[in-house]
Amino acid sequence: MTEIVLQTTNLSKRFGAIEAVKNLSLEIRAGEIFGFLGPNGAGKTTSINMICGLMAPDSGEVLIHGKSIHLDGGITRKVGVCPQEIILWERLTCFEQLQFIGEMYGLPAATARSRAEDLLKEMALAEKRNAQARTLSGGLQRRLNLIMALVHDPEIVILDEPEAGLDPQSRVRVRQYIQSLARRKTVILTTHNMDEADRVADRIAIIDHGELLRMGTPAELKRTIGEGDVVEIRLEGEAAQRESALAAVRGIEPQAEVRLEEDLLSVRMLNAVSRVPDLMESIRRTGASAGEMRIRENTLEDVFLQLTGRRLRE
Amino acid sequence: MKILAVARKSLIELLREPMLLGMVLLTPLAFLLVYGFAYQTPHLKTYRVLAAVNAEAGSDAVDYLRTLSYPDGRPIFTIVIISDRAGVDPALRDRTAAAFLAIDQGADGMPFSYTIRGDALFADFLSASSILESRLSGYLLDISGVRLPVDVVEVPIPALGFKTRTDFSVYAPGLLVFAILLLIPQTALLLGREMRTGTMRRLRLSGISPFEFLGGIGISQLVMAVVQIVLFLAGLVLFGLDYTRALVPIFLASFLTAVSAVGAGLVVGCFVQNDSQAVNLGASVTMLQVFVSGSFFPIPASPLFHLFGHEIAWNDIFPATHAMTALQQSVTYGADLAQIGFRLAAAFVLSAACFLIGAWLFQWKVMRAGKSSLG
Description:
The complex is a heterodimer. By secondary structure, chain A is of the alpha/beta class. Helices cover 34% and strands 29% of the residues of chain A. Chain A has helices at 44-51, 94-104, 109-122, 138-147, 168-181, 194-200, 218-223, 239-252, 272-285, 300-308, and strands at 4-15, 18-29, 33-37, 59-64, 67-68, 79-82, 156-160, 186-191, 203-208, 211-216, 229-236, 257-261, 264-269, 289-296. In chain A, the strands form 3 sheets. Chain A has a 6-stranded mixed sheet with strand order 6-7-8-3-9-10, sandwiched between helices. In chain A, strand 4 (59-64) and strand 5 form a beta hairpin. Chain A starts with a strand and ends in a 6-residue tail after the last helix. Chain B is an alpha/beta fold. Chain B has a 4-stranded mixed sheet, covered by helices on one side. The longest helix of chain B has 31 residues, at 337-367. Chain B is elongated. Chain A binds chain B through residues 15, 18, 20, 41, 43-46, 48-49, 52-56, 73-74, 76-77, 79, 81, 83-85, 87-92, 96, 100-101, 103-106, 109, 132, 148, 152, 160, and chain B through 2, 5-6, 9, 12-13, 16-17, 197-199, 201-208, 368-375.
């Protein structure tokens, strides 16, 4: 059985009337990429702040290798945190930043320098070695922000929204880099980007309003909302016609899960592709007409929608 | 060592910020230049006095005053005879004249009587009127046949290194203290910036202790202070001060002022969230210390008790007060280490206390895990 490196038990935090995190209990295994998925304000960053020791919980405990971080503060040095915001010393060069933070984590100066050089190469920042942080583009700053969490070679790496604000080129590079960390390190990733979580994470915890809603592998989570594919049809016509179309489609396949959001009709059913002609015909009969149509697999967005009744982006 | 790494980082940041560097190193030099040129005139100056004469013997009295001179031959007074008194008050108000002397007919057999008018808040009036009074009363008694039993003699306190004592020599220690106290906002600024940019969060995650972090910041600021002190002392030489006989006491007193300023800056830094708060609050604390330490103007403070034979007043709680006294005694009068030892020791103890308070506040307010923003 894979070792549990990080555990939280009934972690709670309240800010005045707002309960930011409610009884969060997690077990994170060595070498996995663990995704924390939830909308903005769900409590992800608060949870991360408690896990890395920046914030004291109102109740509950964080254990790393079975040791409470509140009793053994030094154990948090096994954790590297890449914060959501870009946090850099504006007037230090890329190399100086990495060397300095390495020394702050207790690395000997020579080791810190060597780690800094290696990381700059790994993240394709070697050319910017002597550039001050304030002169870098946003994407390059984000890359530097990420490797700042890794200088001291932590066992657990926490990445808080690592792809936020990245240009496509940097996003691909960061995603590849996170995947390259898998198995070598335990990675905890917070995101509100379902694609990012789906592609990268081994297991995902869906969190909303400070509460853990569901946890599992992406495939497990998607299976929880049913088998089959999703057909999405953009309806044209009056509201009454769209409602008629919804009723008509429900009549075709009672087992199907049918939903209408404004003009978007979503139908989850088995053998969806073969049933498309039937769907289109039933819609046509109601007087509504179908515009754009696409067929896709279940996504984590669907899971979140089913769990909360709203979309992740709302 | 983390403490040295923090010091190195802070110095690199400072060196790459010309505006901040200029503020700390060049502002004191600018003050030095202004004061140096403005107050370089000798302390014993020639006073311009307006005079209205309405007595026969008055003209002789004026002639007598015109003959008065300092040992180097410069006249004490420039007497301007006026017939219209309408211009007197504006001249006194504008301080283009140190005093107005009215000589009228005397009563009861006296050859004349006189009145001296002026602004009692104007230092030149105080000096000029006292010389006029002593000389004219002596002259009056002399021509009346009675000599004054005592003559007034001014003996300036010998000042170190100055051929001629100037007001600048009096202001120089205060300027030096003021210059060094500018480290308060700068030190606070370094902490405020770490808070604003969030880098303080990174440092907290690394597990650095308040002593390591603040110690590093403190070292970087003391390096800056040494550069500042050297530049300032070099500037003093340009204005004719030869302080080499008291170099060690002057440097020690200056350095301890810097330690206290850095300590105060760390305390201020614990209460700010960004750069502008740091500068505003730090500047206020600097000005407060400048005034209570008597760097610009003497502060009358009644002694509360005695310690090792020294009077201790309420403003002695500030290390800058002791440093200022030590500097005054060493820069102006050439006091040696033994003579200012108590003041140096007091400045050191209070500075160390300031640093410890700063470290404790920093641990309590910034470093410990606590509340943060929602996420």
